[in-house]
Specification:
By secondary structure, the protein is α/β, with parallel strands linked by helices. The chain has 2 domains: 2-125, Leucine Aminopeptidase, subunit E, domain 1; 137-451, 3-Layer(aba) Sandwich (Aminopeptidase). The protein has helices at 17-26, 29-38, 93-106, 127-148, 156-169, 179-185, 187-193, 234-237, 245-260, 305-318, 332-338, 350-362, 397-406, 440-451; strands at residues 2-4, 10-15, 47-51, 57-63, 83-87, 121-125, 173-178, 201-207, 214-219, 221-225, 265-275, 287-289, 295-297, 323-328, 344-347, 368-369, 387-388, 414-419, 423-424, 434-435. One of its GO terms (molecular function) is manganese ion binding.
Length: 455
């Protein structure tokens, strides 16, 4: 995938159609003649190997969309012969970094259940950026692997073991709440997961110096969502192994934070459950009590994610988080509004949220800020309980879900909620069909700017 500054790396020149013409004007006659004879027009995704006169490859020309950096090289690892390559474009450092990340994502293959051929082409990185680029690529691959793994091999226990391994790798404290302790301390998590043969858990991790700013990450870990007694149709269950995508994102961001040394006291909280059906499954119209003491009327057992997150957000607030970021594959309403590639997010600090949105588009990892619209809160205020897990209207489902979560975040805490999809519906260069990491690079960049890294 990557190598570090080899002496004999083949140059790769990324060009759009307009840049190609000016580049040909400066090229040597032999190269220019080869380009003209090949008919290469720098169309997005096109590729031209230019010989070196000795029977080898002297240069690679690759076409792209104007302005594209992240995906400019993503298709190359699968197309180029084995060897070492280097980006020849004189782009600013952040743009070169994005192109290298795209190359790395283009090398990704999920091979747990099937032998697949992995690209043998390697991109040269310099010593200064190599660790950062590798970490960002490997964290995205980590998320993709978790989301792609079916529930038969990734239950609450296996998710906890994955988190335990990550904690051990970075010398972080680790704890799992389960059984009677979970039922007593985190009743909402217990009720949602009680029908499954594999017991629910709350996973907790802590890392960083004690007196650093307290940052909490919370991730929805519904390892499979049948819908419960409000059972989904068969087609609706096909992708529900990905309903733990929020937990994968929380762990993936934690991996970046710990690997690159963000100067925070990090806490990670993951409610890990399976939303299953049996004689003791929770029912529509049940009223359950949460860790906070809030009573929740269950309008639909298929709106379980916000219910389990309520207890995790309450614990994060109790333990002194100054900022909480949660990730959840929470609503279909978000997909209807913004599609698969543009996750909406919500935040109490409007100025910071808009800054994150702007940064995300610059980073080519887009996020879209949505409002916590207070007048809609009345839609989740039922007559006989404190709050409902579904709204009275079929509209603004992502907004009312966010307002539900907001209820369980302590006052004065800076909070952001990401309603992610965590999936690619079709194959594209660097983005194979299947599990996907969304917003990780943007949030890392924003957090790095907010806190800085350890000296």
């Amino acid at each position: 995938m990557f190598c570090v500054s080899p002496e004999q790396a083949i140059p790769v020149q990324s060009l759009d159609a307009e840049e190609l013409e000016s580049w040909k004007a400066r090229a040597e006659a032999g190269e220019r003649d080869w380009i003209e004879a090949s008919g290469f027009q720098a169309a997005p995704g096109s590729l031209l190997l230019v010989p070196d006169g000795k029977g080898g490859v002297g240069r690679v020309l690759v076409g792209r969309e104007p302005g594209d950096r992240l995906w400019a090289l993503a298709h190359l690892p699968a197309l180029l012969p084995e060897g070492d390559y280097r980006l020849a474009n004189e782009w600013p450092r952040d743009e070169r970094e994005r192109a290298a990340i795209g190359w790395g994502l283009g090398c990704y293959r999920f091979d747990r259940y099937k032998q697949v051929e992995k690209p043998a082409a390697r991109l040269a990185l310099d010593q200064e950026t190599e660790r950062r680029i590798r970490t960002l690529v490997e964290s995205s691959a980590f998320v993709r692997d978790l989301v792609n793994t079916p529930a038969i091999d990734l239950g609450p226990q296996e998710l906890a073991e994955t988190a335990r391994s990550l904690a051990s790798e970075h010398d972080a404290d680790f704890r799992v709440f389960e059984g009677e302790e979970l039922e007593r301390e985190f009743p909402a998590i217990h009720v949602v997961g009680q029908a499954a043969s594999r017991g629910p858990r709350l996973i907790r991790m802590q890392w960083g110096r004690e007196d650093a700013p307290r940052l909490a990450l919370v991730g929805k870990g519904v390892i499979f969502d049948s819908g419960g007694l409000n059972i989904k149709p068969g087609a609706g269950m096909l992708l529900m192994k990905k309903d733990m995508g929020g937990s994968a994102h929380a762990l993936g961001l934690a991996k970046i934070i710990m690997s690159l040394g963000l100067d925070v006291n990090l806490r990670v909280y993951i409610p890990a459950v399976e939303n299953a059906i049996s004689g003791n499954a929770y029912r529509p119209s049940d009223i359950i009590r949460t860790r906070k003491g809030t009573t929740v009327e269950i309008g639909n057992t298929d709106a379980e994610g916000r219910v389990v997150l309520s207890d995790a957000l309450t614990l994060a607030s109790e333990e002194g988080a100054e900022r909480i970021i949660d990730f959840a594959t929470l609503t279909g309403a978000a997909r209807i509004a913004l599609g698969e590639d543009l996750p909406p997010f919500y935040g109490r600090d409007l100025k910071a949220a808009r800054a994150i949105q702007d940064l995300s588009f610059e980073a080519e990892d887009p996020l879209w800020h949505m409002p916590l619209f207070e007048p809609y809160r009345r839609q989740i205020e039922p007559a006989i309980a404190d709050i409902s897990n579904t709204g009275t209207s079929k509209f603004a489902g992502s907004v009312t879900a966010a307002l539900f979560l907001d209820h369980f975040v302590g006052e004065g805490i800076d909070w952001f909620h990401f309603d992610i999809y965590a999936w690619n519906l079709s194959d594209r260069p660097g983005r194979p069909a299947g599990g996907e990491a969304q917003g990780l690079r943007s949030m890392w960049q924003w957090l790095e700017g907010s806190y800085g890294t350890r000296a």
